[in-house]
């Protein structure tokens, strides 16, 4: 399901730039996975840098969990190689790889207390008792559960259990942290809170992290880089802003945030024809005359004459070609903004959905039935080859 | 843009390196698998091959030469066949043999005397021919020479041929063929009656608001705790020649089909009840609400909602009951009179006539319905799962006075039936000399004064039950763990699972007989365990393997499948996880398996009746033997001893489970008081 609230464009995290020069910590090349005749992963190439937080994002069945399980060695790939920290781990059994893992189901050992759960891995490698005790209490502090150590998992809430699972995974200081939909089983509020905590923790410990999620908000808010997947393949890899602003495919554009889509024909240069009228569009590499899909996000549409866009530094009217007359058919108040359904003669039958800030609606007196002018900014009108 | 390429690039599929953990798991699974092969697959195979083997003396295969009085001057070689035609030493019927058959060669010579100086030569005409000279086995076509004194100890041995002639013989023996018809008839009638009664009980207990449900449930399970011989004994006392209610039968005899059916209903009732009750307890209230809103009558609702909802339970119960009845041996042995039944035939052929090949033939025939029932049961079980996984609203019966009263009356009748049978045995055991001296005494418990094994038999049974429970639950749980938690190795796991399911389809008599064939062969390196307690434990564990295996699997499947993945990532070897987490969490199931094996080891007769030796006599076998000898009252007393023991074991299990769970399963209690976020 798409989320009604299209998130504001996140700021580019500093860490992503700083790390881009290092050599990859995890390297996946030519990876395929088949279950009988069904191909679950096709030709995956991916590099993850040390200390990076990467999210695998995609709808259910896109292969993101399969890829994670291949990295963990839980379901070995059919073809291709995985290197971690310079070592080829393609064929290693899980126990010989270096990672900690957290599952959606927490998978805490029900008959062991929280402390014992966290200590299990440490006891096994024969650390002295005192060291284990202090490490366990450090980890409990880290996840904010210092007073809960003697309880059993069933006595904790879902969010607390997931924090224990995280502490347990980090106990043996793994080089790689794998999170398999860790927040999916939690309530919305706990989820938002915990995703912030996980991100904090990851930054503090600097552990390379891969998280699988189907929730775009989660991915956008937590990841240094997002790997968008669909039908077993990678659609696009990029920072949250890149993915959001410059989606490479229609699938990415539609899956991350929302889009208005129009059937269109490529014109000369940065021009496109929608419903027999010409619009200026973002730069593209498609041949003139090709039948394409033109897409624009509801949040990118500017109500004419409003001041709302000034903060972003754009001119009041970018290109006169992209200014259209519209009629307000319907408005829906969603708290932070108004979702507005417009009809425009230039767009023929296709309705245009635009999100206007509460501010702009008040200033421009936009209401159901009123006639307004809106602008589709040139650089926000994206063209995609037909799927 | 994703290209829809739906084929892998060429090359070989990557295979994961096998970790030490995996190697160890496979090795352990292999060991348990070998156990099943030795304790089940091979004996069954040997039995099958036995049923296809016939042994005959082929007199054309032996040639003789006789010397004159001086020990020289040899006669022309002459075949045994020719000699026999001349003097008719052996009639045709003597040439049909069992595996152990032997013919004295000297009998072919009318004037043979072991003191005579005449010498004899013998040889085979083919490589297969063999004979015994004293205790030495000789084969081949070389002449062997013996003096008269040694020649009298030359025994010809039969040759084995493979074919269906045993089956032909079986089907041309009217009394044996009649057994098939009888067994099927009895099983069908018993199934119909048991199912009706069990369904009524389950329906009353699940769908009414009558009182005393707990007590009724307890009473219905009583028959599980006694050997199937016991209802037979009870029926003898109730309706036998000197029975209390003999006149109620209006001249019909309880010895025969009537007794077998009534007794079968008694001992199969709990099995059918448990299955049907489970099926009825998963009812979806919404179906009944819909039926009510459509103004369907109660009668119509019953036939369109209730019965179809429980149909898999009914089918499954029907096959379980059918199999139990057709393979049971104890009950028809005690109450069946002259009425031939398949399972009793095996016993008679083997114990009575020492005709092992024919016993094997009956066994193979008995395997057919059991296998059929097993296959159908597996199929319906698979569907039942789908039914259970649907999200249903539990059905809450509403009080209805008339209906509740009727249910109570019906359950009371069944309870009287069950308690009456057990009570009769108890009375019989305590009365001095039925029906002439009704004063109470413990004389019938003085087992040491009777044939059958005495108190030692009882203690042997306890030993067997304890060993079966301990060893069995360990083997079964370990096997189930390996098959459930080993990655990859699909072929091995599939084969293991098949083997583990097989015992359910093998009747006890068949297993016991197969054990004789396999373990009582001097060439078998495991021959040493024949006649010891070890073979009884082996046989009993194997006999009841399947249900225990399924119980263990169910418990293991309830664990989070990611435990192993987490342990791997923490570098914890599987055995540490097994002992710290898996085993403690599954402890209730393990105790469940142990008590199941204990109770069944106490009551089983069919498999062990072929395998006990003088110093490993068992209580259940003692009942059989005492009943055979006419000591029916002591037999009843021994049956009651088994009953007390099983009740005590059940109580002990309940207490131990409580204590143990309180200590090791503290996390379960707190789970109920968990605070939400």
Strand order across the largest sheet of chain B:
3-2-6-9
| Approximate helicity band of chain B | 55-70%
Which structural class fits the helix and strand makeup of chain A? alpha+beta
Overall morphology of chain B: globular
What is the CATH class designation of the largest domain in chain B? Mainly Alpha
CATH architecture grouping of the largest domain in chain A: 3-Layer(aba) Sandwich
CATH class of the largest domain in chain A: Alpha Beta
How are the strands of the largest sheet of chain A arranged?
Answer: 6-7-8-3-9-10
Order of helices and strands of chain A: HEEEHEEEHHHEHEHEEHHEEEEEEEEHEE
Largest interface: A-B, 64 and 47 residues
Tally of structural domains of chain A: 2
Give the helix tally of chain B.
26
What amount of the residues of chain A lies in strands?
25-35%
Unreliably modeled segments of chain B: 386-390, 672-677
Give the strand content of chain B: 5-15%
Question: Radius of gyration of chain A in whole Å, from Cα?
Answer: 24 Å
Provide the descriptors you would attach to this structure in a database record.
heterodimer; A: 387 residues; alpha+beta; Rossmann fold; OB fold (Dihydrolipoamide Acetyltransferase, E2P); 2 domains; six-stranded mixed β-sheet; five-stranded antiparallel β-sheet; 10 helices; 25% helix; disordered N terminus; B: 677 residues; MetI-like fold; 3 domains; four-stranded antiparallel β-sheet; 13 strands; 61% helix; globular
């Amino acid at each position: 399901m798409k989320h009604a609230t299209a998130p504001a464009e996140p700021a580019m995290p500093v860490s992503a730039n700083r790390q881009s020069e290092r050599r990859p910590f995890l390297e996946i090349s030519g990876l395929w996975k088949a279950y009988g005749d069904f191909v679950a992963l096709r030709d995956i190439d991916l590099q993850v840098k040390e200390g990076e937080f990467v999210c695998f994002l995609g709808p259910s069945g896109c292969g993101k969990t399969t890829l994670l399980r291949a990295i963990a060695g839980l379901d070995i790939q059919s073809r291709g190689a995985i290197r971690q920290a310079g070592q080829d781990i393609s064929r290693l059994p899980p126990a010989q790889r270096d990672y900690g893992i957290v599952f959606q189901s927490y998978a805490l050992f029900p008959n062991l207390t929280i402390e014992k759960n966290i200590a299990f891995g440490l006891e096994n490698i024969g650390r002295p008792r005192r060291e284990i005790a202090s490490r366990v209490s450090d980890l409990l502090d880290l996840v904010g559960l210092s007073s809960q150590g003697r309880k059993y998992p069933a006595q904790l809430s879902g969010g607390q259990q997931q924090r224990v699972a995280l502490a347990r995974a980090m106990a043996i200081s793994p080089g790689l942290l794998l999170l398999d939909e860790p927040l999916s089983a939690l309530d919305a509020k706990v989820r938002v809170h915990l995703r912030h905590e996980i991100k904090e923790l990851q930054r503090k410990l600097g552990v390379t992290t891969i998280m699988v999620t189907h929730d775009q908000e989660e991915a956008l808010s937590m990841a240094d880089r997002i790997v968008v997947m669909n039908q077993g393949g990678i659609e696009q890899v990029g920072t949250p802003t890149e993915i959001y602003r410059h989606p490479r495919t229609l699938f990415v554009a539609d899956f991350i945030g929302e889009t208005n889509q129009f059937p269109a024909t490529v014109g000369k240069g940065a021009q496109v024809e929608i419903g027999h009228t010409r619009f200026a569009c973002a730069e593209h590499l498609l041949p003139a005359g090709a039948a394409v899909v033109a897409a624009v996000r509801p949040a990118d549409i500017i109500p004419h004459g409003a001041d709302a866009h000034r903060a972003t530094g754009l001119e009041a009217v970018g290109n006169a070609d992209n200014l259209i007359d519209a009629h307000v058919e319907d408005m829906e108040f969603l708290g932070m903004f108004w979702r507005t359904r417009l009809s425009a003669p230039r767009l023929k039958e296709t309705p245009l959905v635009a999100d206007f800030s509460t501010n702009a609606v008040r200033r421009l007196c936009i209401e159901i039935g009123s006639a307004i002018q809106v602008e589709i900014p040139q650089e926000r009108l994206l063209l995609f080859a037909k799927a | 843009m994703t290209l829809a390429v739906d084929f892998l690039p060429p090359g070989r599929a990557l295979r994961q390196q096998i970790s030490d953990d995996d190697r160890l798991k496979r090795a352990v699974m292999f060991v348990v698998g070998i156990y099943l092969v030795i304790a089940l697959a091979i004996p069954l195979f040997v039995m099958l091959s036995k049923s296809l083997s016939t042994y005959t003396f082929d007199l054309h295969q032996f040639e003789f030469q006789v010397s004159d009085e001086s020990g020289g001057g040899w006669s022309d070689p002459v075949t045994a066949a020719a000699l026999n035609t001349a003097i008719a030493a052996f009639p045709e019927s003597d040439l049909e043999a069992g595996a152990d058959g032997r013919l004295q060669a000297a009998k072919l010579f009318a004037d043979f005397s072991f003191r005579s100086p005449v010498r004899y030569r013998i040889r085979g005409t083919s490589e297969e021919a063999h004979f015994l000279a004293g205790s030495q086995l000789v084969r081949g076509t070389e002449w062997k020479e013996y003096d008269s004194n040694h020649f009298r100890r030359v025994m010809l041995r039969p040759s084995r041929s493979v074919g269906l002639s045993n089956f032909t013989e079986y089907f041309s023996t009217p009394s044996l063929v009649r057994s098939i018809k009888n067994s099927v008839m009895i099983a069908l009638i018993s199934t119909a009656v048991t199912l009706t009664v069990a369904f009524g009980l389950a329906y009353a207990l699940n769908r009414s608001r009558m009182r005393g449900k707990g007590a009724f449930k307890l009473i219905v399970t009583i028959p599980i705790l006694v050997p199937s011989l016991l209802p037979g004994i009870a029926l003898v006392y109730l309706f036998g020649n000197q029975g209390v209610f003999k006149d109620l039968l209006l001249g019909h005899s309880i010895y025969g089909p009537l007794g077998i059916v009534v007794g079968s209903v008694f001992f199969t009732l709990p099995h059918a009840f448990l299955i049907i009750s489970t099926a009825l307890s998963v009812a979806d209230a919404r179906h009944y609400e819909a039926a009510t809103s459509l103004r369907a009558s109660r009668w119509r609702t019953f036939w369109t909602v209730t019965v179809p909802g429980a149909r898999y339970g009914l089918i499954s119960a029907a096959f379980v009951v059918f199999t139990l009845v057709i393979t049971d041996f104890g009950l028809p042995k005690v109450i069946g009179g002259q009425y031939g039944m398949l399972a009793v035939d095996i016993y008679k052929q083997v114990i009575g006539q020492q005709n092992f090949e024919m016993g094997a033939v009956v066994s193979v025939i008995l395997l057919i319905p059991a296998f059929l029932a097993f296959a159908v049961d597996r199929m319906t079980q698979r569907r039942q799962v789908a039914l259970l996984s649907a999200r249903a609203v539990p059905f809450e019966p509403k009080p209805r006075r008339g209906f509740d009263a009727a249910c109570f009356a019906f359950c009371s009748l069944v309870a009287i039936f069950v308690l009456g049978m057990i009570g009769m045995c108890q009375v019989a055991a305590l009365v001095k000399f039925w029906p002439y001296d009704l004063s109470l005494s413990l004389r019938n418990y003085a087992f040491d004064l009777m044939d059958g094994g005495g108190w030692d038999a009882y203690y042997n049974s306890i030993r067997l039950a304890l060993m079966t429970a301990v060893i069995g639950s360990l083997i079964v749980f370990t096997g189930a763990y390996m098959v459930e938690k080993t990655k990859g190795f699909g072929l091995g796991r599939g084969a293991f699972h098949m083997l583990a399911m097989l015992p359910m389809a093998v009747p006890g008599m068949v297993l016991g007989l197969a054990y004789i064939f396999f373990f009582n062969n001097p060439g078998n390196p495991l021959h040493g365990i024949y006649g010891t307690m070890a073979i009884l434990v082996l046989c009993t564990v194997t006999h009841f393997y399947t249900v225990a295996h399924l119980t263990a699997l169910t418990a293991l499947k309830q664990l989070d499948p990611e435990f192993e993945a987490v342990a791997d990532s923490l570098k914890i070897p599987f055995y540490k996880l097994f002992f710290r987490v898996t085993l403690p969490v599954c402890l209730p199931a393990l105790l469940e398996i142990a008590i199941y094996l204990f109770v069944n080891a106490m009551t089983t007769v069919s498999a062990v009746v072929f395998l006990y030796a003088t110093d490993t006599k068992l209580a259940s076998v003692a009942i059989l033997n005492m009943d055979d000898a006419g000591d029916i009252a002591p037999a009843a007393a021994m049956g009651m001893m088994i009953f007390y023991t099983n009740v005590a074991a059940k109580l002990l299990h309940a207490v131990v489970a409580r204590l143990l769970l309180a200590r090791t399963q503290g996390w379960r209690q707190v789970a109920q008081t968990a605070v939400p976020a």
